[in-house]
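Entry:
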Amino acid sequence: MIISSKQLTQYSIHATDDKIGGIKDILFDDETYTTRYLVADTNTWLPLSRKVVISPVSVSQVDVEEESVHVDMTVDTLKNSPSIDEHKPVSREYEEHLFKYFGYGYYWIGPGAWGEYAHPNELVTSPTDQEAESALPSNSTNHLRACGEIDGYEVATTDDKVGHISDFLIDTKTWQLVMLVVDTNNWLPGGKHLALLPSDIKEIDWAAHHVAVNLSHDDLVQRPEVDNDKLGDGHYIAALIAQIAET
């Protein structure tokens, strides 16, 4: 199933025994463009100073009709999970602590976006063995970025700046970011919402607040227009991606 980040950040979170607030933001890996964590809005059930994240490994269901994400843990388990400082990058040390707490295998051991597995849920029953853990590098560059931060970044083509990032489309089976949406309304007459693929991105410049792409102005504006009413239709998104591949 394909879902937009704007939709997902309106969803509530359901533990196995109760509802526990909603999703505040989404953290993704800017190398693999894979969703790594859902940031929980804890204001109604935890002290304001504590922020917690939920890995897709623990997500058992995304219910579009109820606008909810169901996780395979109790309220107390989530309440007692390691907290983060939302104003600082999530470190690999924190991730190790978090995954050990839940007893999950490490997604960063192995060749794929989820290590040796195709889907995150397979890490639930595959805890990391000590031999593989000892092979980890002592330092690891952080590549986690927030959708909420990049939303609104200008898109820099090889010629100029055309539009800004307005949405992210996520496959809730693999949790890959399959597409970004570029809003050109403030740049071009009769502005449109255009499709951008992660493979188009050359660099995300955090200091300049823009996303540099390997496309010219003309290449970008010729991209297929995105119908916002069909963002949840996986067949529609697949057709858009196929159309881009043919150009």
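Helices lie at 5-8, 75-79, 92-102, 130-134, 147-150, 217-221, 234-246.
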